[in-house]
Structures are given as C-alpha cells and as structure tokens.
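Minutes, project check-in
Item: structure for the 248-residue chain
Input as provided by the requester:
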Amino acid sequence: MRFANKIVLVVGGNSGIGLSAAQGFAAEGATVVITGRDQATLDAAVAGMADATAHRADVADPASLDPVIAAVREAHGRIDVLFVNAGIGAFAPVREVTPELWDQVHDVNLRGCFFAVQKALPLIGRGGSIVITGSIGAVLGVPGNAIYAAAKAGLRAVARILATELVGEGIRVNVVSPGPTETPIIHRNVGMDAAAVDSLRQVMIAAVPMKRMGEPSEIARAVLFLASDEASFITGVDLFVDGGCVEL
C-alpha cells in the first residue's frame, strides 16, 4: 500500500501503460484521477478501480485540462503523484514527413505533455513525484522514426530541466522509457495501414534481445517504483524498460 492516502493524476490513463499504472496505483491505496479522449474507455477504466474518477480531456488541447485541475483542486486540494503518459505514434520515412503529421505528434507527445505538467504544478508540493512516459526511440536511430523520436527526445530534455528546477522544492521528476510494448499505440500509428503496423511489430520483436514485446504491466511497475517513496533519492533519471534494447 505504497500510495495509501495519495492523490494520483494519470494523464492518458484510459488504455495501455496509463491504465495499467492507474490500476496499480489504485490497488496500492491511491485515490486516482485519470484523463483520456474516449469516454467509453474512461468509464470502463474507472469501473474497475476502487476509488477513481475520470475526466475527458485531450492533451493536445492544454485548455481542456483546466477543468480537470480545477476538479482535483476542489475535491482533493493537491496532487501527490502526476503520471503524464499521453502519447501517439507516427512512423514515416523522412521524405514522407509532412508539417501536419509532425505537428499532430508533437502537439501531443511534447507540447501537450509539457503543459500538462505546468498546469498540475500548483497542486504538487514537497514530497511530490512526477513521472513522464518517454521512449527508447529518443536515443536510437530507428528508420522512419524521426517525428516520434524528436518529440520524445524533446520530452526527455524537458524532464531533465523540470527535475533541475523542482529539486529545491522537494519534487522529483523522472522518465520511464519503454521499449516495444503491447499497447493500442502500436495499432494506431498515424499514416500506417494494418499490414505495415504488423510488419513494424515483427521488426520490433526481432530487435529486442528478449525476443518479445513488453507488457503494459511491466512498464507500470517501473512507473510505480519511481513514483513511490522507494525512489526517494532518485530524480532526473530515464529508466529504460525495454528487454535490453538499449544496453545489450
């Protein structure tokens, strides 16, 4: 029960890694608030948790998070843990990248995530923890990954600056960077048809030393660790949870 009496906000908590983490926080005693774009999956997510509420919001539209923050302030007065997990995928060769596709991904994966943290900060006090979902793509030269990698690399840089600025306030900031993981984002890659997505998935598996995709629960366990007091002397890290992709 590492999160008993804790208020946890998960931005992008209605599917995949975000949902698995939200369920983990709830199972360990937290009061959980999740956001997402799809009302049906939000409703299904909170139905399976003991003490959870959901708010429809699109991280690509920072203003849509204002009512969420206001609701958390009114109901709880604080945020103990913020997990910013929202993200979308896009793979395209450099010659096929369009400004529209670039902006679509960066509006969510970089700009939206930054402003989600900024908007939540007034409710996060000493002892608070922020965890952000990055990607090993930020440090690997994967063909076709320019848009996504640039956004996640920018987010990693943002997290490092946040950690530096907030360390004096007793707020920790860390990144969890998954490797290939079985989440809906794999099947929603912008600009790719089903056959291309399946081909990409097979390439990913072949590149993982463990020769399999990760499960959302495996990433979520790392998120919960960094968010908990067990990681009280850890800030500014980028934790790879990737089956050995980066280091082996």
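Outcome recorded: The chain has one domain: 7-241.
No further action items on this chain.
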